Amino acid sequence: MDGRDELARRFEERRGRLWAVAYRMLGSAGEAEDAVQEAWLRLDRAGGENGKNGENGENGENGENGETIVNLGAWLTTVVSRVCLDMLRSRAARREEPYGQAPPEAGAGEAGPEDDAVLAESVGLALLVVLDSLTPAERVAFVLHDLFGVPFDRVAPVVERSVPAAKQLASRARRKVRGTPAVPGAELERHRRVVEAFLTAARGGDLGALLTLLAPDVVRRADPGALPPGTPAELRGARAVAEGTVLFRHRTRHAAPALVDGGVGLVVAPRGRLLYVLKVTVEGERVTSYDVIADPERLRGLRLAVLGLPGVNSPSPTQ
Predict the structure, then answer these.
(1) H or E element: which one contains 216?
(2) pTM surpassing 0.85?
(3) I need a labelling partner for 288 at 20 to 30 A (CA). Which of 107, 212, 229, 318 fits?
């Protein structure tokens, strides 16, 4: 095996983790793959010029900017993070609309609908949606430190800040991601159980379960953009709301619980792109109303946060 083959082998060993970092930063499977590929191209150029790169105490060689690659995994994570930061800044400069628009059809390198469940489980749709509200530097600092355990002395150069400033970026991001519940913890947890049961029943098209979860005088209101032409914007009564919910059950595969203006609601976000928010009102053990918000201006005005951070990997800082 020649030097380039060995370098490619070592890169492939780390590809999965690099993709995970990039996906959490960018929220797009295709863009994450592009960022990882760019990291390989930069490593290939560095390896091709300098031969085998060092790792874990081996004699390091020069990277693309003359820096010594002592730890290959750390170097690749830094490169991917810098590429993602540039992509996020470019996206912000173009003022891309993150709300209320359907994502493009799946194409080469992009996750298709059949992959949504896998991505939702591994990342958390609500987390991806909330990360879109962060500045590029906040998002990169939070993902690296809070989700992947990268120490701040390595985060700081990526976001071009001092270590204390990088810590502040991550702290601000953390506050936004966690949000502030509007009700006490026990009540919030009870509301969460009701909303999760409602989502499960909706996904399964279980009319009977929905009828037990909906208050007799429940009201469902929806923005016109969330409904096909001719569909009533408002439904009243448990039977009408339950049947209307079942009618749109296909949308629930992209839904996840989230904190919406301090209460438990749902975000509907195919491949991490926010389309709708369900603002749910719970009284006792039943849903008394829910609003389907699809208008971009209304979506921008919502305070969205994650209901308890999902399980996070805390890899060794040497990886």
Answers:
(1) strand 214-222
(2) no
(3) 229
Write the CA distances from 54 to 60, 72, 154, 287, integer angstroms: 4, 7, 18, 59
> What tokens were used for 184?
């006490």
Q: Rounded to an integer, what distance in angstroms lies between the CA atom of residue 254 and that of residue 269?
A: 5
Over residues 33-47, the pLDDT tens digits come to 999 999 999 998 876
Terminus-to-terminus CA distance in the chain, angstroms?
Answer: 24
Taking CA atoms, 18 is separated from 38, 182, 190, 275, in Å, by 11, 37, 37, 28
145, 70, 141: which is closest to 318 by C-alpha? Answer: 70
Contact at 8 Å (CB) between 286 and 292? no
Q: What number of H helices and E strands is found in the chain?
A: 12, 9
* Amino acid code (one letter) for 10: R
* Closest among 310, 292, 309, 247 to 100, alpha carbons compared: 292
SS (H, E, C) 228-241: CCCCCCEEECHHHH
- What is the per-residue pLDDT across 275-316, written as a single tens digit (0 to 9) for each? 999 999 999 999 999 999 999 999 999 999 998 754 433 333
